[in-house]
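Table S2 (continued). Query chain:
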Amino acid sequence: MKTYFIRLLNYDRYANEVMLNSIIEAEMPRKSIELMAHLLSAQQIWLSRCKGLVPVGSILWPDWDSETLNKVINNNHNEWLEYLNGLQPGDFEKPISYKNLKGDSFENKLADILAHLINHGTHHRAQIGQQLKFSGAETLPVTDYIAYTRQFDC
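Corresponding output:
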């Protein structure tokens, strides 16, 4: 299971990089940058929760520029990989207790949190893709997981 989630995180980083490059090239409106910042901030919040930490000072919609986003993409990826590499096989089925940003308590299996993390990124990248299309982009970045596996022989 560890190998599978590491592969998904590698894909997620790739898709985020491709989408960010498309945003920059298209000189997209601020909303696209805001969506990417939200996606990446949520990754940081979830990592804190998985580590049993309270996400102190977390902002769900940070005001980051494209240079910051590029750094955060790589930092998030490295921190998630470090976390996953320290896990044992049984850890993916263990419950993680956490509070949302409203202070409500929840408990979910780590595997489910990781699935949510990847799906959340896909959701917001799709929104950004729509913005690219509506703004007149003739070609959209290919961020499909299956295309990623073909390209990188996963």
